[in-house]
Design brief:
Blueprint: H1 8-17, H2 31-37, H3 52-61, E1 73-77, E2 83-89, E3 92-99, E4 102-111, E5 116-121, H4 130-139, E6 140-144, H5 146-156, E7 164-166, H6 170-177, H7 181-190, H8 192-213, E8 220-223, H9 234-240, H10 242-254, E9 258-262, H11 270-277, E10 281-285, H12 295-302, E11 307-312, H13 314-317, H14 323-335, E12 343-347, H15 357-370
Parallel strand pairs: 7-8, 8-9, 9-10, 10-11, 11-12
Antiparallel strand pairs: 1-6, 2-3, 3-4, 4-5
Helix pairs in contact: 4-8, 6-8, 7-8, 10-11, 14-15
């Protein structure tokens, strides 16, 4: 079924509704590129208010902004002896978890070349630290800030489709964020009961946060787990992830809302698993040459109903790729629209900070030319 959609965010809405817009919507996360190339100070705490320069950039490029707008809620512990603290000083972003069971600290150091914060010290060093996180998770409550959501939505106009966001799931917390991957794998095999308890505790906390958010004004919620099947195979997904994603999707769908999961890794296998959980959109889907599958193979694995958002590997979008490689990557991704209109044109993740501005501007022209139905 074809719809007469002309505004960019209405094209996005149409795809989520299962309609076919006049062309593939263009969505980009320009936040990292913007900070680096506009010399904007980068604080991992995120934006606390609307960033006009980022809004203007999305309008100039002609792409929908959907993430990296700061959090639409705050997290507070209901136990005075438990605290979650963050601070930035001297280029070091520190996260501290303070509980009666002990204190944990993560340290991330700013790199001016990549304009990112690399992890110098992981929050979790071993399974002995798990009870501290479990104590924190048992106490956290969310306080919504929908005024921030409305401010971004109003500022962006047709160029905005803000996603609400949950914290990392238990598996993402362990494998993709707060623990070294090697140490996490050892924990899974050597301490399976401790690992399962940690993951279940984080997930239970997130479901309470979700219940606080459910009646908010957003349409889509994203889980930014950076899933990668190279280190999280099907056995891991089935044991620690499947039931959680399925439950989040169920609660959202009961409110007429949608679920996106940020993949940003090897998608082989993952796309089919997400479909089985009722996930609506796989975000940050990156094809070859960065990962194993071509766009055509990714669509075949996902089936016709899962929205695929992504398409341009960072190695192609950035300065290491040629203009010809970039255009070929865009065209091959857009060709899959002929199999399913459940498709967004986007970067494989964030637009890399070394992407030439002329290439970013060219993207809208390519979508207009090769992305129409």
């Amino acid at each position: 079924m074809k719809s007469d959609v002309v505004c960019e965010n209405r094209r996005v809405h149409a795809v989520y509704q299962g309609l076919r817009p006049d062309r593939v919507p263009l969505m980009l996360d320009l936040s990292h590129w913007y900070k680096k190339n506009r010399n904007v100070p980068f604080d991992l705490a995120g934006f606390s208010k609307v960033e006009k320069g980022l809004v203007d950039l999305h309008r100039q490029v002609g792409a929908v902004a959907y993430c990296e707008m700061g959090s639409f809620y705050s997290l507070e512990a209901d136990d005075p002896e438990v605290r979650l603290e963050t601070a930035t000083e001297g280029g070091v972003f520190t996260t501290r978890v303070v509980t009666p069971l002990g204190t944990l600290q993560e340290e991330r150091v700013f790199n001016p070349v990549s304009y990112s914060y690399g992890i110098r010290k992981y929050l979790l060093q071993s399974s002995d630290d798990f009870p501290v996180v479990e104590k924190l998770m048992s106490c956290l409550k969310a306080r919504t800030k929908w005024e921030r959501y409305e401010a971004w939505k109003n500022a962006l106009g047709e160029w905005g489709f803000p996603y609400a966001q949950l914290p990392y799931s238990g598996s993402g917390y362990l494998m993709a964020r707060y623990m070294d991957v090697e140490a996490a794998v050892y924990a899974v095999f050597d301490e399976p009961e401790k690992t399962e308890r940690l993951i279940n505790t984080v997930n239970a906390c997130n479901l309470r946060i979700l219940d606080t958010l459910l009646d908010g004004p957003f349409e889509t919620l994203i889980i930014s787990d950076n899933y990668d099947s190279n280190v999280q195979p099907k056995s891991f997904f089935d044991a620690y992830v499947r039931d959680y994603y399925t439950e989040v999707a169920r609660r959202l769908h009961a409110r007429g809302k949608y679920l996106a999961v940020h993949v940003d890794g090897e998608s082989r296998g993952v796309l089919r698993w997400l479909t089985e959980c009722g996930v609506d959109c796989a975000d940050a889907v990156t094809p070859a040459p960065m990962f194993a599958l071509s766009p055509k193979e990714q669509r075949a694995e996902a089936g016709p109903d899962l929205i695929l958002s992504g398409g341009i590997p960072a190695t192609v979008f950035g300065s290491t790729g040629s203009d010809a490689q970039f255009e070929d990557s865009v065209k091959r991704w857009l060709e899959t629209r002929l199999t399913s209109s459940r498709l967004f044109m986007a970067a494989g993740d964030q637009v890399p900070p070394d992407a030439p501005f002329e290439r970013i501007m060219r993207l809208r022209e390519l979508v207009d030319e090769y992305g129409r139905y």
